[in-house]
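Write out structure tokens for Gamma tubulin ring complex protein 3.
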Amino acid sequence: MAQLARTCAPLKGGAMIVAIARHERHGDPLVRGYVRHLLRAAAAPLFGMIRMWVLQGELRDAHEEFFIESRATPLTALWEQRYALIASLIASLIASLIASLHAPRSTSLMVHLIRYAMSP
């Protein structure tokens, strides 16, 4: 657990969740269970941001931890340029969360988000 704490100390958001997920494959069932509990707790704020984004179209990311960013954009370019995916966060983050959380509802939210964000 000390190694997990050292690994995660400088991280935030998706990077921290990915780092926690990497420790989930521990051989000790007690440690594995604890890491899964930590992973769910760490992912909860992110899933809250995803729900807010997908269901209400609002981006609330006070700590810049979400994989979508809002950009200052003139009204004429609002649709094309207002929001952008941070590709370096989304690919590894989604793969780790889907593989680790085993939550069908969360998975469907992620799929919906990807389809929405990537549609032309």
